[in-house]
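Notes continue from the previous slide.

Worked example: a multi-chain complex. Inputs as given:
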Amino acid sequence: MNAHADILPCRQAVRDIQRKGDTIGLVPTMGALHEGHLSLIRTAKERCKHVAVTIFVNPTQFAPTDDFTAYPRPLQSDLDACDQAGVDLVFTPTVETMYPSGVRTTVHVSGLTDVLCGPRRPGHFDGVATVVAKLFQILPADAAFFGEKDYQQLAVIRQMVRDLNIPIEIVGCPTVRERGGLALSSRNAYLSPAQHNQASCLSRALFRAANRIRAGKRNIAMIVDGVREVITAAGPAQIEYIEIVDAQTLEPLTIIDRPARICLAVRIGTCRLIDNIAVDAPGPSS
Ligand code: AMP
């Protein structure tokens, strides 16, 4: 496995692979790798001959009050995990490499970033879109793999790639969960054991809501109230939002008449957790 902190050897490695007629898949991460990241790497390996991973805690997607400095950075164990997973190339740039002084360009995807986490995390998705656009220039892979866990991020990146004619296929991968249902996240490390236990209420609430919709319930306000009740009953939590949105446009729905997604963001202690679930077409109404 080759690991580089510089741009040129990474771009060259990708070009060399493609010149041979081989494919390469890209898995962008902020490190602190867990089974969710590893599942993306496995999918990339199934779909492409070679796999590149980027490990970069991107400062521009954190607000000043966010956890940028505290964010976990276990670089050596991440490199070991990549090596064991059969990754060919790892890009571990510094902040100065990604944002040398004088940088003036940002990528803004409108509309999709005005809902859900967008207004609650001003600038976050501009930071994400910009760094991913840069990574796509540095590692011009054939396909890039992103988790549905960050559903809005996936939608924003799909839109950006379409709008900017970036010739990289975007592949969404299912959320990997703990046995108790909690979606794996590097930020789960901030939860105390009791909060960790409590946090399984998020997936429990989402799965229950999806089942109710599948069984024919269509009243969105009642479904959302049901999600809120499960979360509130589990312990102290600050609910930022619970919304049912169009699976493509992320526009809030008033009636479930198309593929939809239930999305939520909840703070437990200081830890902000997000999760979402697909909503199947409802059965007969009740
Ligand atoms: P992060 O390191 O948190 O920026 O995540 C890097 C990539 O891993 C993103 O595409 C995430 O959506 C994805 N990811 C994070 N957690 C999970 C999970 N539990 N299941 C699947 N993908 C995930």
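Summary box: The chain has nine helices and nine strands. The first strand starts at residue 2 and ends at 4.
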